[in-house]
Task: structure prediction
Amino acid sequence: MRRRRALQIAAGLAALLVGLYIFQYVTRGAFWKSTFESYVSKRAGRSVRVAGNFELYLDPNIRFRADGLRVANPDWAEQDDFFVARRIALDASLWKALFGTVTINDLTVDGGRLALQRRADRTNSWTFGGGALEIPDIVRAAVTDSGIAFVDAVTDTRLDIAFGDIAGTAASGGQRINGPLSFSGKGRTHGAPFDIAGRLTTPNQAAAGGRIGLDLTANIAQTRIAVAGVLPGATRIDGADLRISVAGRNFQDPWRLFDIALPATRPYKLTANLTKSGQELRLTKLTGRLGDSDIAGNLTATLAANPGDRFRIDGTLNSQTLDIKDVGPLVGYDPARIESGKGVVVQVAGRPRLLPDATLAVDAIGKFDAKIDYRAKTVRTGKLPFDNLRLDFGLDRKLLTLSPLAFDVAGGRLIAKIGIDARSPLVRTDYDVRLTEIPLGRVLTGFKVEDAGTTASVRGRLQLKGVGDTVHKSLANADGRIALVVPTGQLWIRNIELAKLDLQNFLLALLGKQLKEKRQINCGVVAFTVTKGRAVADPIVIDTDRAVFRGRGGFSFVDESLDMSLEGDSKRFSLFSGQSPIGIGGYFADPSINPISAELLARGAAAVTLGLVATPVAAIAAFVDLGDAKDVNCAPILAAKRGTARERAANAKPKR
Result:
């Protein structure tokens, strides 16, 4: 009796289960909808709702389908929903689920959108109920018309990316995605819009946690970036084998977004191998062009170990040919003006300004240190031959040094040491520029003047100290000395006549016949004392076997004005000797040369005669560092008492 009773109960339960199974199969488990929403919402710690059709039944595996599935975001998130899908369907193993393992045999997502967000305090929207979202094993998957939106306050980035259709399987041999995984999107970072497109060329290895083949292009801040190669993992770059190409109008543009101060450039295109080892990002086999100059070398960026620390850039770069136009942006000229052919001169308060006035990014250069050695075999200038350029660039806690900046010029060499100290509120700049012995014959040849045997040379030095965060400002209040010395030598007569400032005699000689007689230079000194950006002749004197001329006045770095006079005295009779001095006026970018008449001198209109300080030649020789200065024979000329142009003008008689 009891046995029969037990059989009846068992049969009843079986019938009930069969009935329930048939019921849930026929109804597709639609009645579970509210239970599902309540249970999953509680587990996730946020609202989960299904707007349309709902299915959850056994067949015999677990079958699930939801149209209009929505998973809410935290209240603080911009987007209401963390995840939405027009349709999601899956087939999961019931047997494995009974033993605590969730394995999805088939997954289909159509019209899915994932909205991820991270706040400044690094809390995020993808952490559920105190833990990160866990994704179960998936054997086969198909994803269509889906994408991801990402908002990150930490990096000031917004990204909206769409994926191409994805179809994949997983079997005993491992997971497999059919074909490359493509993606494209748009966004903003640090206030600048960007777009991105690419594909994972090895999606199956990526899905298995292996190496990732990547082919990506992006456009940001008028810069195009292309990356191709292999990453060791989805979130790893150590050991990467990538080739990166970057092209744009100005190398400053993309880095300015991250408050990193790098030199401005003309349009450029660079390619390099990129990898990472520990804290070092290494760019090797770098090649490309900056403007009309080629460039190659290696760079290493050492990342900061701790937040707030400075990172560091080290490297060696070289060029076979450096175009002088590409140097302009590096010293503060606007590369856009250079590229458009407008030149470097700008109008300020109705006056032409030549000196660059780009502001030094003091705060930005305090975020990193650097040491870069640069070499250029040839500098293309169009006139003077520059070769063998060397630049050692250093940056250490806002102390920027160009030491040395050196190059060969027309057979001599220019050697400069420049230091810009931005460690205090007032940026202080030290300039020390030396010219070794430069043959004037080769200089004149560069300006298409025939070299008929010139042996004279020029040496010089500029030593100035100023305050200001631009080149113009630092020179506009600078103090120091400038001196050029021409020791004993010979110069072609055409240039002597011009130097003598007997201009009519020069034109007669130039138009009447070609004179190739050489003239002897006994000495030449062109020196200035600079005080608060204003330079005064100290002295200007050139003595030749036929003429002596002196200069008075000076120039100003403040407004770049020229205000000088040059007067020549012939040692021999010349029909045109005794002409009025020549006035040199205008500005650095727009000089003018005009005779100063006796009447103007008599009225005192020639304000250029500011006086001749006549610093001893021995002191100038020591400043320029001539070594043996016996060939600078200017002492007799400096000591001689000669009448000024004003005195001769006062005594001048009208010509008949």
Q: What stands out?
A: The radius of gyration is 40 Å. The mean pLDDT is 80.
